[in-house]
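Replying to the earlier thread about multi-chain prediction with a worked example.

Input:
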Amino acid sequence: MRRVAAALLLVVLAIPAAAGADCKVHRGEAVVLYSTTDDPSVFLWDSRLRLRDYNAASFDEAQALLPHAVLVAPGTHASVVSCVPKFVVSPMFSEPDDAVGVLIVSGPQHGLTRWVLGSDVRQFH
Amino acid sequence: MKNAPLSHVTATLLLPAFLVVTLGLAVLGAFQTRAQISETFARQTQIQQAQIALEELLRLQIDEENSLRGYSLTHDPFYVSEYRMAANEYDTTEDSIRQTVREQNLAGAQQMLANYTRFQQEWRTNVAAPLLSHPNEQLDALDKRNKLYSDYETRTVAAIREALASTNELLQHSTQMQLDRTSYVRAFWLLAFGLLAIFLNAYRSRLYRELEQERTTTEILQRVFRSESTPLPHCEVGSAYLSASSHLAVGGDVFDVYRLSDHLALILIADISGKGVDAAVLTAFIKFMIRAIALRLRDPSAILAEFNIAFSKAVGNPYLFVSMFVGILDTDTFRLEYASAGHDSAYLRRSEVVRQLAVTGPLLGVMEEPYGTEALELRRDDMLVLATDGLTEARDRGGRQLNDEGAMALIAQSGPHAQELADQLIAKVRKLGGNRLRDDLAILAVRVVDGTATDA
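Result:
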């Protein structure tokens, strides 16, 4: 049953990849997660809608969303499984950011599939 | 003298007045602009200081977080003291930014700063305090909450930064506009003043040329109409003339010595009330008219009376009048008969004593009154000194007028010969006024030299 659910999730994550032509990263790319220099740890979200809501919400609303987030250390390796271009809109951003679906491949969250902000994903060369 | 034309009044009074007023306005405007620009610069400086302080605030916030991370990883109290130091410094810096934002009346930034302060205080309560008291508990949850605060604080700082930058940009734009406007206004005033100055200078030059031309014409006319020193038997005749310093004051003095017969001579000096070319032309009229009348009538009072009638009819200007001294000198007997129409600058110097000759009637051209005739028996070395009012009305540099007493004193002190006396009087008057003469001055002196006259 768990395998089926995981497969379904992968399919769901994979669907928007077709529209990911404008994304900075693409499916299958190996990436490293790293946020801003001031605070480099990265939030992983169980839904791209929550990812979007977190960035658009007020502080109190964002605080209510926290149980749906996982914090990973900067430098965590991942693989891109999906990307929705310009999905995250926030009054704090000068332009919309991508929502990127990733499979964590290192650290304590290894094997977890979640959504992250496009600007928190660094291509790994 | 003619009335000044309106264009002359405009150019000499109104335009300079306009220049002064506009110059005053330009200076006031410059001061006002300077004050405005200074104020804008002061605001800009304050905003820039707030921008720097904001970056410092962000650095202190990160210092606080890093110190807390250091403590949670190592449990070293050093990081606690670092944390507290950063927290204190953070509060001070935040106060200064709040003050600037309030003074600059940046309502949006004030609200954002309030949020920022709230986040930081909550972070200290909800994240920092639990970690400091129980460094090993709930690390995951606190980490997440820490990230949340960090995200929102960073975003708020970015918004405040943008608000300050936007205000700064507006102020810069405003300053630039003020500077541009000042430049344009200054260029306009410079152009206006320059053009007005050029116009005034051109007008002044034209006026000066016209006056100089009139003065030259007047002087030529006067030279033509004034008699050269006509030699008289048994007498010395001396004369001198000095033009007024002002172009407008040159004009109406005339004197003449004319032999009517072998032993009779006409002695004339007159001063016309007008100035300029018109007055100079009138001198010719007076000179030849008096000569013509004197050839028929030998009585000076009759000459003046007839001339008075002819003058009034010929000139027809009720504001023009003439003071005149007419003498008929018999060069055989040295009897001088004279009449004076209001001409009081007539003197007789006998030995060292100078006395003023009496006026025998009113000014010519004023009324038709009879004139009296006086007679003098001249002696050897007696000097008849006739002058125009340029002598008695001469002023020293302090503005004091010479008057009759001063004139008589100068005559008494002058040399014994007629021409010498005339030249010396001119020189003394010129010296007295510092080479500036308010009116023309004509001097005619006749001295008896023949031995047939009675000695004193």
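DSSP finds nine helices and ten strands in chain B.

Feel free to reuse this layout for your own posts.
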